[in-house]
Amino acid sequence: MKPIRCVLIDDHHVLREAVAAMLAAESDIVVIGQAGDAPGGCALVRETHPDIVITDLKMPGQSGLGAIGEIAKEFPGIGIIVFTMYDNAAYVWETMNAGARGYVLKSASKTDLLRAVRAVASGAGYLQAEVTVPLLRRIAHDARSADARRTLSLREMQVLEFLAEGKSNKLIARTLSITEETVKTHLRNLYEKLGAADRAHAVAIALRQRLIE
After folding, report:
1. Tens-digit pLDDT profile for residues 20-41
2. Residue 209: what are its φ and ψ, rounded to 5°?
3. Distance CA 74, CA 158 (A)
4. Angle (CA) 8 71 121, round 5°
5. In the predicted model, what is the mean pLDDT of the chain?
6. What angle (nearest 5°) sits at the alpha carbon of residue 71, between those of residues 61 and 50?
7. DSSP characters over 98-117
8. Residue 52 host element (H or E)
9. Which domains does the chain have, with CATH numbers?
């Protein structure tokens, strides 16, 4: 049986090395590459074509959310597992919609991560128990509210995160490689979906609803 070939994407070097060592100790798993940021990770995936990508969400520059969407679109056969400290249901929802098939918290046990790798490699999905209840609450809330059912898209989540960081439209456009007019369109959609009057109001609502941290 061929081993499960994994790529790790995480800007925390020590943690990444520890996870790599833990996975490499398993007879059916091999780590074929590591990257410290999303662009490097995407490039590594294109070069190595792994079975599994394990990625963090919050990284300098392009976020893990962006990398998930990019990898899933280009390589739909690769299993993507989110490995993060965020148990926010909005992140679980958006990463799964973007193409991830597993979600594991960094506080999880070794057993949880190994189960996720093997489950996703076999074609199944894996959601750590600790994030299941928040996600179900999010789904129930969405079902109760017509406005909430209009969930934010992956790109709108990215724009929202940049708003929270205080970035200008010009800088957001440059970071996401889109036009300023497109950024303004995303902002209008965000304001409408969140019921916000302006940038500050949108961030305040998103923080209150735990859409962002």
Report:
1. 999 999 999 999 999 999 999 9
2. -85, 0
3. 19
4. 60
5. 86
6. 115
7. HT--EEEETTS-HHHHHHHH
8. strand 52-55
9. 4-136 (3.40.50.2300), 152-208 (1.10.10.10)
